[in-house]
Design brief:
- Helices cover about 30% and strands about 25% of the residues.
- The chain contains nine helices and ten strands.
- Strands 1, 2, 3, 4, 5, 6, 7, 8, 9 and 10 form a ten-stranded antiparallel beta sheet that branches.
- A hairpin with a 5-residue loop joins strand 3 (about 85-90) and strand 4.
- The protein starts with 6 loop residues before the first helix and ends with a helix.
- The structure holds protoporphyrin IX containing FE.
- Protoporphyrin IX containing FE (HEM) binds near residues 33 and 275.
Length: about 325
């Protein structure tokens, strides 16, 4: 029996749908994406600091989905948007764990209730198709904590490639090491190809799906890789607040390497529904008290139900 979704999760996805529209079979946000096959190899440092199976070695199989943040599946790849990198690791014994990251270094809001308010404030006016700037401006004026994410979103150049962006896990997770020591950490995927952007005009002159085309072309000549960079919280760092970045000089290390080999066609097709949920952690990793993190699971399930209910008959 599938439990009834809670009201907050339904409200979150309703608000997202009101901004983006409903598109049969598609994710409520991050509707446009490309799935790839990958592998993840931990470093020795990862295994020393975290007891989770994927850091114990050897390499594990993975699926990776690159996406644009918008809920509009036909949006041009060059438009202003955050991009996503969602990773599913297949662990020995048959379970999986997910790491879900965005190009934003921090999030807009601290709580799901504020996410709801912010998303409702962004609802387009049917007459103009654009948000009511008076409503949105008033909300932003009352929420200075949203500024760092907003500045990052507005200041980002369109990407040259999904392979040339840095993706942030944003939330803190509590790691337990094999020796029992506990640390709060945050993840970041650093692109081995280095960062690169395009000016808006060049990006918009490319074909609407240029990021997927570029990735296919890039993969034809060799793998794409990211390093898993882990920062460790110092005493007093915010571990429950995704709007606050940690200082740059925090202890950090490389915990593993993600190597993406080819586009994948074996999942998220037909009857198979693939969902990446950052609350699916494995033994050795625990969630922080971040309420945005805990709210995501229910909202993602509602989006999945709507994907299934609306998809075209086979
Ligand atoms: C309360 C806050 C949030 C809400 C309500 C929300 C909602 C959603 C929903 C409904 C989906 C589609 C799920 C599906 O159909 O599979 C989604 C996908 C996604 N979200 Fe969030 N999200 C939130 C915060 C975040 C944060 C903080 C991050 C990054 C750390 C993030 C990154 C992503 C990514 C990368 C995807 C695409 C995953 C894929 O490729 O399948 N989201 N989100």
């Amino acid at each position: 029996v599938v439990p009834e979704p809670d009201q907050l999760s339904v409200d979150l996805v309703d608000a997202i749908n009101d901004v983006n529209g409903r598109h049969a079979g598609k994710r409520a946000v991050h509707a446009k994406g490309i799935l790839c096959a990958a592998s993840f190899t931990p470093t020795a440092a990862g295994g020393e600091l975290c007891a989770a199976a994927h850091f114990a070695g050897p390499a594990v199989r993975a699926h990776v989905r690159f996406s644009n943040g918008a809920g509009k599946p036909d949006a041009h790849d060059g438009g202003p948007d955050g991009r996503g990198l969602a990773v599913k690791l297949y662990l020995p014994g048959g379970s999986t764990t997910d790491i879900v990251a965005l190009t934003l270094p921090v999030f807009f809001v601290r709580t799901p209730e504020e996410f709801l308010e912010f998303t409702r404030a962004r609802r387009p006016d049917p007459a103009t198709g654009a948000p009511d700037m008076a409503v949105l401006g008033a909300w932003l004026a009352e929420h200075p904590e949203a500024q760092p994410a907003l500045q990052a979103a507005l200041g980002a150049q369109p990407p040259e490639s999904y392979a040339r962006l840095t993706y942030h896990g944003i939330h803190a997770f509590r790691w337990t090491a094999p020796d029992g020591a506990e640390r709060f950490v945050r993840y970041r995927w650093d692109p081995e190809a280095g960062e690169a952007g395009l000016d808006a005009e060049t990006a918009m002159a490319r074909e609407p799906g240029y990021l997927q085309a570029e990735l296919r072309e890039r993969l034809a000549s060799g793998p794409v890789a990211f390093s898993l960079h882990v920062s460790v919280a110092a005493d007093g760092d915010a571990v429950d607040d995704p709007t606050v970045a940690w200082p740059e000089d925090r202890e950090s290390f490389e915990a593993g390497r993600l190597e993406i080999g080819a586009e994948a066609f074996d999942r998220d097709r037909g009857e198979d529904v693939l969902v990446f949920d950052p609350t699916r952690v494995s033994d050795g990793i625990a969630l922080s008290g971040d309420r945005i993190l805990s709210a995501r699971s229910g909202a993602y399930s509602v989006s999945v139900e709507r994907r299934i209910a609306s998809r075209a008959p086979a």
